[in-house]
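Closing statement on the glutamic acid sub-project.
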Amino acid sequence: MTKPVFRFAPSPNGRLHLGHAYSALLNDALARRYDGRFLLRIEDIDITRCRPEYERAIVEDLEWLGLDWEKPVRRQSEHFADYHAAFQNLKGRGLVYPCFCSRKEIADNVRFLETHYMESNESWRIDPDGAHLYPGTCKSLLPRDAELRIEAGEPHTWRIDMQAVQKLLPGPHRFTRFTLDGEEQIVEADPWRWGDAVILRKDVPTSYHLSVVVDDALQGVTHVVRGQDLEAATDLHVLLQKLLGLPTPLYHHHGLILDPGGDKLAKSRKSEALHELRERGITAAEVRQRLGFQPTPST
Ligand code: GLU
């Protein structure tokens, strides 16, 4: 029987905090419990925000926590060709279209539609990330016009055409969720709530959603364990897996570690980083115990 494969997949755009430590320790603990493999994947597609020094710091923090992972580590910025191949697959089947809209244009279009076409008590739907569902403005461009704009170097994203996808794969789309007690439950995904999501960004030739499903498949990940903040993204990932003929792993979305004020820990909110705890004299064993794990990794 093949071994279960777990992964921790941080983005090197800041220092790790307790929330990351929990996720990494949980993946490691489950890999040990099920005699599985534990991988580290560096999700550095965001070339403006990710930095090599943060990647080095991630390795230092994880080693300090007593974690060990298989080498070599997969670094997403070295695999754009893989994401491009997946994108070409979708493009070749007419399931994506180029979009030249800026955020402001989308907001303006949505406001226009709300004002002129919707009842006063209705508002335009938003996706799970809080962004307006794309109103489909660029979908009606003539293919030749879109091509000319691309050739002229106009910045653009590529969006998934959910209407076309829904015809091809109406669903229901299901995946298996597992609990830490080992129970499994089949749940229904609702990918449509993402609308025509961006599959290729303007600044980089991929997106979080595309890279993560390609990598999980290429690395043979069988169990995705990540925070509840990414739970809604799973619905879209399950759909992309089906479209690309990739296996769907089992999923567990763990609770988030909150700061004393009850907010989610975040690099952007300057939550205390692991290295700051370390500098205050807190030991790795204490961090592990505080998060509910054994003080040292079991063998
Ligand atoms: N890179 C993502 C993050 O740092 C995690 C992606 C995932 O686990 O699927 O939030």
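The two ends are 21 Å apart (CA to CA). With this model delivered, the sub-project is considered complete and its resources will be redirected to Aim 3.
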